[in-house]
Amino acid sequence: MKRLNRRQFHFSLAAGSAAVGLGASPRTAQAQSANETLGVAIVGVNGQGGDHINGFHADKRTEIRVLVDIDSAVANKRADMVEKLQGRRPEVFTDMRKAFELDSVDIVSTATPNHWHALCGVWAMQAGKDVYIEKPISHNVSEGRILVETAKKYGKMCQTGTQCRSSGALRPAMQFLADGGIGEVKLARGLCYKRRKSIGALGNYPIPGNVDFDLWSGPASFTDPKVTRQQFHYDWHWQRHYGNGDLGNQGPHQTDIARWGLGLMRHPETILSYGGRLGYQAERKDPKYVDAGDTANTCVSIYDYGDKCIVFETRGLSVDDSADDEINRLFGSNRGNKVGVIFYGADGYLVQETYGKCVVYDKDFQRVKEFNGGQPHYANFIDAVVSRNSAELNADALEGHLSAAISHLGNISYYVGENNHANERELSEAVAQASRFDDNQATLQRTLKHLTDNGVELDKYPVSLGQVLKFDNESETFVGNSVANQWLTREYRRGYELPTVASV
User: Of 78, 240, 428, 503, whose CA is between 20 and 30 Å from 434?
Assistant: First the structure.
């Protein structure tokens, strides 16, 4: 198919057209030769973008040729770093679309804020590039499906940044589960017991002078005031207009592992979340204090699949002495952060302690087996780019979509019930309605104790009870809930629209 000139290319991107049809570039239309170097453009190089730089630099099959960031100071600092690493300075752009025009770029890797993930991936694949997209692959459920269909239509490799899928510890551990290593497993619990302090008071803060805020916002509409958080970078995670809270930040790692270990290649049937942005008033000794974040810092999400269940717990307040004896014994401590997954089997437990370590316990909490190993996730992606075989990808677009959607569905339950403040009895009744697994009642009690231990006066600052939602896997919509269905997508700013699934 013919290439578009610069003006035509920009027009088609701005229109958000799914019919750009640039096709595969000559270098990616067929398997690469063994000694051909692949050109990489990394979009969003602050924070996690540094891991992308290190990952692609470590593989001699690739060369980093372009860096893109809306913060010119960050971009140039990273370009200096890359020049020292590989001896050649990459080009620097603020607008990712300029990188997509280059024939020298074969791969686009993105670590932008979440609200940019899907559009960056769609634009890059339409321009003939293979893509590596950080988790969560999407900011909402519909974006994930659009990425799945885009990768399929254009024949592109699309890897999601759930690195544990390539872990030398996780892969044999998940096979051990599948082989019945701890007996029948119906329940997996993901933990994000990770201390998160307040991001500061809600306010009206200046846009950093070296930031192109229009490009940073991209698909997201402007708010008034435009910046309501003190720290411009990173703290967007805790504002739902751009991020997805720790449910969507840490969650996709652990819920992806949970889904993997339980053998689930579908969405949950019933979803319930409860929690809130709680406790910062007590920490500040100011009952009127309003934190700039609007995602939950304490949240329990229950995902019922009928025959199996995933639970994900987020705790941002002090996590010392906040778990029960069982969890403390499985993680070997009653203090500090606990981030991982527990699989509950008929004959024991399997615990993902770190990204590179899993431990098996018997029913008496005695260690019986251990798995260790690294994460060659970028290398796995490059293998598939070279071979042009998407089956080689350890975390393709569909895996990324299913795992990101878990977080989105949990957040939606919370968002639609945010103003529904509930007492213990009401919470218990909703939990029973959402899932038949009795362990969820113990989880509720442990969560309420965690809040009161952190000084949260539940009569003044009650827990928000999300709605119990039913989800249809075939249509990827909620059953009989038009309000919840509105959260499956978003209103896109003009010039940054995504295609619909039907028009991909």
Answer: 240
CA distance 390 to 459: 53
pLDDT confidence bin for 14, thresholds 50/70/90: very low
Instruction: Look up the CATH number of domain 169-374+397-482.
Output: 3.30.360.10
Ranges of each domain in the chain: 6-165, 169-374+397-482
Question: Vertex 301, ends 300 and 306: CA angle to 5°?
Answer: 140
448-470: average pLDDT: 97
Q: Is-contact 111 45, C-beta < 8 A?
A: yes
Task: Output the 3-class SS for 99-127.
Answer: HHCCCCCCEEEECCCHHHHHHHHHHHHHC
Contact between 273 and 411 under an 8 Å Cβ cutoff? The reply is yes
Name the pTM for this structure: 0.93
- With CA atoms as reference, report the closest residue to 125 among 108, 113, 142: 108
- Vertex 394: Cα angle to 389 and 395 (nearest 5): 105
Distances (CA, A) of 504 to 17, 96, 111, 150: 8, 21, 23, 6
What 3-state DSSP class applies to 375? coil
Q: What angle do CA 160, 165, 167 make, to 5 degrees?
A: 130
Q: What is the mean pLDDT of the chain?
A: 93
What's the CATH architecture for 6-165? Answer: 3-Layer(aba) Sandwich (3.40)
pLDDT tens, position by position, 54-90:
999 999 999 999 999 999 999 999 999 999 999 999 9
d(CA 117, CA 218): 11
Q: What is the DSSP letter of 35?
A: T
User: Whole-angstrom Cα distance, residue 7 to residue 11?
Assistant: 6
Summarize pLDDT for 236-247 with one digit per residue, the tens.
999 999 999 999
List the one residue out of 15, 18, 38, 20 whose CA is nearest residue 102: 38
Q: Residue 52: exposed, middle, or buried by beta-carbon count in 10 A (0-12, 13-18, 19+)?
A: buried
Locate 293 and state its tokens. Answer: 């974040």
**What residues are paired with 178 via a beta bridge?**
none
Q: What is the pLDDT of residues 81-118, one digit of tens each?
A: 999 999 999 999 999 999 999 999 999 999 999 999 99
Q: Which among 49, 469, 483 has a CA at the least distance from the CA of 271?
A: 469
Which positions ≥6 away from 84 have C-beta within 8 Å?
Answer: none
Contact residues for 353 (Cβ-Cβ < 8 A; gap 6+) = 331, 340, 359
Q: How far apart are CA 345 and CA 350, in angstroms?
A: 8
